[in-house]
Write a structure and sequence with these properties.
Aldehyde Dehydrogenase, Chain A, domain 2, alpha/beta, six-stranded mixed sheet
Length: 458
């Protein structure tokens, strides 16, 4: 029997101990999900809509309770968690209210053929979730899977099991039948057993590069389609502008959001040389004096602890290697020992493409600044990454900005705005940031078979 703990990263106290499912238990769970699917796929869009709207209302009514749960497991700021959970409830409403329009039958008549397209559900989806947004990351994927007529089994990250179980409890309380959404207490090593199961028809993972590579290999081995949303190492490109203080405030907010533990949070700051020294100076002043680090339950706290001790060690190792590579430490670069899972807001300057913090995604409050001689070099530096999730570009000239955006090789480009996520906006990247898009109309159709039914051919 294998167990694992949920621990509080701030107080270091144990929340609860959980027992992992055996392979035999996993088989029974998947069979239940398949049996539920056979009924669920026949339900009307109106009934699905009713249940999901009830789920959204339930999440809103429990917002404070859920935010606290998220905070005590991975120490997202509680006030930040409340906002994300509210946004997640609204995302569910958007899916529920638009599913029939997006997934309903479509008549066609072309090339001498008359017929219709039908979006058929597929079966049981296996989802794998990260810890950094414990409710949002799961629900934005699982709700799209389920509203399309599938059922889903979800392996949440091992450090947020209370959140994982709370999601299943929400589905049950909202009136969904047993097996439509099921939380798994499984290990990464059990993923092959799950993916190989004949009732698993698709795999959906949000996570880091190594996990994505492993799941992609297993999905291919068993001929199961997959969607992977992976790391970012996103670029924040600073071109000609007239308001450095406001731009720096945005840059710091982008970097420390959720403790820097956000795949689409800006990490590499590429600045034209005529603004470089001023940008570094003002970012140093902001990060060293204006970022409040304290209890994540406190509404004024801006920087929470990192999610676990391993994450702290990883971030510190990346900073240490970057300094050894030749980066200049402007501020931070240390573990704050008053609470051992805090990492100091850190600014690395004079970063070049061969250095660790330019090549690797640093999942913590660490900003790397690189100087560019001109716009062309800034574009080349932004694109010089194995990853390609999202980028943001700042310039006072909107027409020039649009031309620059066309040249950036990223899944999402945000002009004079921080990178973000909307229910209506396809979310996903290129290169090692994965494949497939979450959110948007395509996301509801991703886990369906677009079946062509031809009535007549001339």
């Amino acid at each position: 029997m294998s167990t694992f703990d949920s621990n509080n990263p701030y107080t270091l106290e144990k929340n609860w101990t959980f027992t992992r499912h055996t392979n035999e238990e996993l088989d029974a769970i998947i069979q239940t999900a398949h049996s539920a699917y056979l009924d669920w796929k026949e339900t009307s869009f109106a009934h699905r809509q009713q249940l999901f709207l009830k789920l959204a209302d339930l999440i809103d009514s429990k917002n404070s309770e859920l935010a606290k749960l998220e905070t005590i497991e991975m120490w997202s700021l509680r006030h930040f968690s409340k906002n994300v959970i509210k946004w997640t409830a609204n995302l569910i409403r958007r899916y529920a209210n638009n599913a029939e329009r997006i997934l309903g039958d479509e008549d066609f008549a072309h090339d001498g053929m008359v017929g219709k397209y039908r979006y058929d559900s597929l079966g049981v989806i296996y989802g794998i979730a990260p810890w950094n947004f414990p409710f949002n990351q799961v629900l934005r994927a699982a709700v799209a899977n389920i509203v399309a007529g599938n059922t889903t089994v979800y392996k949440h990250a091992s450090n947020v099991p209370l959140c994982g179980q709370a999601i299943e409890d929400l589905f049950v309380e909202a009136g969904f039948a047993k097996g439509i959404y099921t939380n798994l207490y499984s290990s990464g090593s059990q993923s092959e057993h799950i993916i190989a199961h004949p009732h698993i028809v698709w795999v959906n993972l949000t996570g880091w590069e190594r996990a994505g590579s492993a799941v992609w290999s297993l999905a291919g081995k068993y001929l199961k389609p997959s969607v992977l949303e992976l790391w970012g190492n996103d670029a924040f490109v600073v071109l000609d502008h007239s308001d450095t203080p406001a731009l720096v405030a945005d840059a710091v907010a982008c970097r420390i959001n959720n403790g820097g533990q956000r795949c689409n949070g800006s990490k590499r700051f590429i600045v034209l040389e005529q603004y470089y020294d001023e940008f570094v100076e003002q970012m140093w002043q902001y990060m060293s004096t204006q970022v409040k680090r304290w209890d994540p339950m406190d509404a004024e706290t801006q920087l929470p602890p990192l999610s676990n001790a391993d994450q702290v060690a990883e971030v510190h190792d990346q900073v240490t290697r970057s300094l050894a590579d030749g980066a200049r430490l402007v501020t931070g670069g240390e573990i704050l020992w008053d609470h051992w899972q805090f990492y100091a807001p850190t600014l690395l300057a004079d970063v070049t493409p061969e250095m660790t913090s330019f090549r690797e995604e640093v999942f913590g409050p660490v900003a790397s600044i690189t100087k560019a001689k001109n716009t062309e070099e800034a574009i080349a530096l932004a694109n010089n990454s194995e990853f390609g999730l999202s980028a943001t570009v700042r310039w006072d000239d909107m027409q020039q900005l649009k031309e620059v955006a066309d040249q950036l090789v990223w899944g999402m480009i945000f002009i004079n705005n921080p990178a973000g996520s909307k229910a209506s906006l396809p979310f996903g990247g290129v290169k090692k940031s994965g494949y497939g898009k979450e959110n948007g109309p395509e996301w509801l159709r991703a886990f369906t078979n677009k079946k062509a039914i031809v009535y007549s051919i001339e």
